[in-house]
Write a structure and sequence with these properties.
With 130 residues, the chain is an alpha/beta fold. The chain has 6 helices and 5 strands.
């Protein structure tokens, strides 16, 4: 079995979904502690404040944070992405979000866009696989 500490999970959420992601992260805190965590600044701050999890901030999403995460995926530095998206509100940086999604597909990186898929991603027996 691989050492989970070598894997990095990005945690991202649009404003209307941040509370849901924070609740999910708090519920899964024991599992998430085993991984390096990164996120966009607002999401990272909220998760840390509620859960105490150590999570590195990669910048505000609309100001390039999503692009930094996409770059991390492309350069094999980010191995899983949990991104709770708000499908009801148009995002001014939609092209950045699409770049992140495309990079996950290109690099075969698991991408969860909602709570149920996120549950599958972190509970899969394949979580530690290459």
């Amino acid at each position: 079995m691989k050492n989970n500490k070598m894997k990095t999970i990005a945690l991202v959420a649009h404003d209307e979904c941040k509370q849901d992601l924070v609740e999910w992260a708090n519920y899964n805190k024991k599992t998430l502690k085993e991984f390096k965590l990164v996120g966009t600044s607002g999401t990272a701050k909220m998760i840390h404040n509620i859960t105490g999890l150590v999570i590195d901030s990669l910048g505000h999403g609309p100001d390039g944070g999503d692009v930094f995460i996409a770059h991390g995926v492309l350069t094999d530095q980010i191995h899983r992405v949990i991104f709770f998206i708000d499908v009801k509100t148009p995002q001014g940086h939609e092209h950045d979000i699409q770049t992140l999604i495309r990079n996950c597909v290109l690099k075969n990186v698991p991408l969860a866009l909602n709570r149920e898929t996120a549950n599958y991603v972190i509970t899969s027996k394949l979580m530690n696989g290459e």
